[in-house]
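In the laboratory, one determines a bound structure by crystallizing the protein with its ligand and collecting diffraction data. In a computational setting the workflow is compressed into a single prediction: the sequence and the ligand go in, and a structural description comes out. We illustrate the idea with L-homoserine.
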Amino acid sequence: MSEWVTAFAPASIGNVAVGFDMLGLALEGVGDRVRARRVDDEGVVIAEVRGLDGDIHPYLSTDPTSNTASIAAQALWAAQGADGGLEISVLKGIPLQSGMGSSAASAVAAVVAANALLDAPLERKDLLAYALIGEQYASGGLHADNVAPSLLGGLVLCPQILLPEVRRLPVPDGLSAVLVHPDLQVNTAVARKGLAKGYSIQDWLAQQGLLAGFVLACAENDKELVAKTLKDLVIEPQRKASVPCFDTVKQAAMKAGALGCSLSGSGPSMFALAATGDARNVAIAMQQASRSVGIACESWVSPLDAPGAHVESG
Ligand code: HSE
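The predicted complex, in structure-token form:
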């Protein structure tokens, strides 16, 4: 048996309002950890899964066929033909079904830890495919907008049609992300099944224009264009009813000076982009709004260039 290696992978904002399934943003200061070590027996076993409080997780089992971390690590280990197997432990720092990329972060942390134990570790970008295998198990779809920013950090453009090509985008100066997690749960796989299957050409043109404009705004450091384009005309209207505080929280964010506000992934978390000097007030306003309708919540403020996953020890 080898020494333990521990990897951290950050939470992330999927879609970033404007780019459904193809734009994601890493968050600083919140994420999952996976510890891994080589063992003689083949396959990946999970020694334990612990929750936010450090106790054994009440909902996640140690069955390696039903955890994104072990599924992703197994995919990497098998593809590399590595000898023996792995024992892993998962420490969840991200609430389940929160819209913060919880399943993706576990998968990313697992492949980063497992990779560090290979005789010939892969380059970071080449781990994406294995983390996606884990994420696909959880969300029921092939989308990289949580896995890619969790792996690489920052704001990442990752359309399915270009995979495995994903690119970090430049981010505007002086902006921060605010993430508010109302104490609710939304199952991403269920939320995805509920989306309309067909859309009008008007909707398609409008959202395509907003995405192109947002990418340009980031490249040209144009905050007015960020504010004009940070909108989800198509998915948000279909999903916001699953977050009863959505309208109240969004209004509060915009009133406090946010440039835009929408669901994070499939929710219930919500995010806003704001000038860094306004971000703390935006977070407080969003939290107060959620609490005003009886829904407890917590919040984080993050730079737009938060680091991606990394090995912490080993
Ligand atoms: N793009 C995915 C969705 C992200 O919105 O379904 C889920 O976190």
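The chain has ten helices and eleven strands. Keep in mind that any predicted model is a hypothesis to be tested, not a measurement.
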